[in-house]
Amino acid sequence: MKHFPSWPTVAFMTGLVSMGTQAEAADWKIDTANSTLGFSGIQTGKKFEGHFSRYNASISLDPNHLEAAHITVDVDLGSAETGDRQRDTALPGRDWFDIAQFPHAFFSSAEIHRTGENTYEAVGNLTLRGASKPVTLLFTLNVEGAKAHAEGHTKLFRSAFGIGQGPWATGQWVALDVDVTFDVTANSVL
User: Fold this and answer.
1) Which residues pair with 56 in a beta bridge?
2) Is 1 a residue whose pLDDT tops 80?
3) pLDDT at position 24
4) Which residue from 95, 154, 106, 157 is spatially nearest to 130, judged by alpha carbons?
């Protein structure tokens, strides 16, 4: 069976934003060696998973002053990997991410809300392939001393960002929805 390229959703980058809530420090640095920005989707009826290996985040967040929090994330779209050579070769191309014109995806938070004891939602805009759309990321956060660990998820629709052109524009071969997950560790910056 022929494999078709898939769309790793970048909002996963959104997952990186969640690390900023800690009482002891307002600024955080992502520990990329111990963090994962992942995605999954369905291609020809089978689930696939992938991740981005290169990304940066700027996080300034105090849980006692969420109104002043600001988070930005920059994802290098050329770093998407799924373990399938055909898919990984297709993703940077014009039908998918088109990294020649749009090499990066950006997330910028507008608001972060506490939704429970250790649960939050980050609301902001994701810019991908020249389209900017609102995104909400749900996550849990645990803090121990100067380290924080967050896990979260969101769902994106690739068609909202123009990901998948031509025969890939419909969900016939590759599903339109993409799950974004993250497992992020961050260190406080004093």
Assistant:
1) 74
2) no
3) 37
4) 106
Contacts of 172 (CB under 8 A, 6+ apart): none
3-class state of residue 37 by DSSP: strand
pLDDT band (50, 70, 90) for residue 15: very low
3-class DSSP assignment, residue 160: helix
Query: What is the maximum span of the chain, computed from C-alpha positions, in angstroms?
Result: 54
Residue 75, beta-bridge partner list: 55, 105
pLDDT of residue 89: 95
Entry pTM: 0.80
Amino acid occupying residue 132: S
> How far apart, in whole angstroms, are the C-alpha atoms of residue 96 and residue 129?
9
pLDDT tens digits, one per residue of 59-83: 777 777 788 888 888 999 999 999 9
- Alpha-carbon distance 78 to 88, whole Å? 9
154: left (phi over 0), alpha (psi -120 to 50) or beta: beta
